[in-house]
Structure formats: structure tokens, C-alpha cells
Amino acid sequence: MIEFILQKDIDLLLWLNGSHNESLDSIMWFATEKYTWLPFYLSLVILLVWKYKKDAILMILLIALLITISDQLASGIFKPIFERLRPSHDPSLDGKLHLVNGYKGGRFGFISSHAANVFSLAFYLTFVAKQKLKWLPFVLFPWAVFVSISRVYLGVHYPTDILVPMILSFPIAWFVFCIYKKYNPILIKKI
Predict the structure, then answer these.
(1) 3 state DSSP class of 104
(2) Per-domain boundaries in the chain
(3) I need a labelling partner for 165 at 20 to 30 A (CA). Which of 83, 125, 151, 187 fits?
(4) What sections of the chain are H helices per DSSP?
(5) Is the pTM higher than 0.85?
């Protein structure tokens, strides 16, 4: 069963990575750049402050905790424990991958920090903003999927490298949301 899953993981990676062209290369490179999304994040902060006023302070401070937890889970725990080579560093895939701008990423890829962070943020903001911003998940989850798929397209993650953090990000976001509920009595009155 594990061999089957690993083979499907490689097949899906090679299909997505092999679907490259110049336009998609540019789009996926844009999606994976760390500074690309700064205007998006700033817009989210402004939106939260506008809608939640001083309640947004705790909401935003907890985002730092959320990202720290998800990022450390990925980079500080999973990658060192599993030491699964990124596709771009896997000798068995040498010459089979299209690497955009020669980008290979760090040595290990399981699990994707990008995916852990964006899905944790998407779940958390969905939980905290569900009262006033019901439309927000329809922006956040396509964005999280887009960022995560870009990592597979670029050949630096297998599909399971993004699937696992997508699942793990739910309890992380829920945990941080529970902290928000505990320390925001105004929210408790509204629920």
C-alpha cells in the first residue's frame, strides 16, 4: 500500500511538473516567492482592523503564534525526523524534473512549510472571522491551494508534502482559535 501511494505521489508530481510552459513558470514562481504576498497579508490586516477594531489586535497577534507553530512543526520537527528528500534533490528524479530558475529549495521537503503556513492561516481566519467576513474562506482557501500547488509544480515538493500539512493545519488553527476565544470575552458573548 505504501509503495502504491509513493508511486502515485511521484506520478502526480511528474504530471504537474511536466505540464510546464513559460507562462505557468512565471505564475508559479510568483506564487511561491515569499515577498509576493506581502500586499495580500497587509490587506488582510487592514480588513481585520477595519471590521474588528480593537478585537483585531489579539486576532493578529495570534497569527504570529499560529505561523510559528505551523512553521516549526514543518521545518523543526517533520523535516528533521523524516528526512525525505525534496524531488529536486532526489537522485532518482534527476533529469525528469523541470526546475524553474534552477530553484531546488532546501534538502528535505516533508512537510511543506509553505502549505502548513497558508492552510493554518486560512483555517484560523475562517474560524475567527466567520461572523463578519463569511466570504473570506472563498478567498483564503483557493489562495492556499494555489500557493501549495506551486510548490509541486516547481518540483520542490511531492503532493503528499502539501496534503499532510493541509490536514495538520486544521487542529493547529483550531488550537490558536481556542486561545483567541479564551482571551476575547467579547467573542464569547457573540457565539
Answers:
(1) coil
(2) 34-102+110-190
(3) 187
(4) 2-18, 22-32, 38-52, 55-71, 79-82, 113-128, 137-153, 159-183, 185-190
(5) yes
Question: How far apart, in whole angstroms, are the C-alpha atoms of residue 119 and residue 124?
Answer: 8
Pairwise CA distance, residues 169 & 167, whole Å? 6
Chain segment 43-85, per-residue pLDDT in tens = 999 999 999 998 899 999 999 999 999 999 999 999 999 999 9
Torsion sign (Cα): 50, 37, 20, 160: negative
- Pairwise CA distance, residues 72 & 33, whole Å: 19
CA 155, distance to chain mean position in Å, is: 16
Residue 170: count other Cβ atoms within 10 Å of its Cβ: 15
Average pLDDT over the chain reads 91
Q: At what angle do helices 113-128 and 137-153 cross, to 10 degrees?
A: 180
Q: Which residues contact 157 (CB under 8 A, 6 or more apart)?
A: 13, 86, 87, 105, 109, 112, 114, 115, 151
Q: How far is CA 168 from the centre of its chain?
A: 11
Using omega within 30 degrees of 0 as the cis cutoff, is the peptide bond preceding 111 cis?
A: yes
pLDDT digits (tens, 9 = 90+) for 148-159: 999 999 999 999
